[in-house]
């Protein structure tokens, strides 16, 4: 899938002002039916667990947080700030403790990238690895 759609303050948006990739929107809209690797989407409080991962620094610089690692020490995020091509929007992780030491206002993309660990080249690659190859 390619292309993105700007989401308003209703539906999927949680106030970070980022464009949600199509793969990600499809994923979170169907999560409740199957997936264990991403925080559960309670039907009574849609996206509550995703809202809990909101980080102003990550979002300001263009990284969309979408899950925690297995130990809840690292946030996984999609690099939506790299451009609209979803095939180029890699998935990274960052130790959430590092975020406490970074200035939310003055840290730039290059400074943040020094702390990011590349996990997958795209959300589709992540999805394929976890749900097709492991299937």
From TrEMBL:
InterPro entries per UniProt: Knr4/Smi1-like_sf
What is the name of this protein? SMI1/KNR4 family protein
Which species expresses this protein natively? Paenibacillus cookii
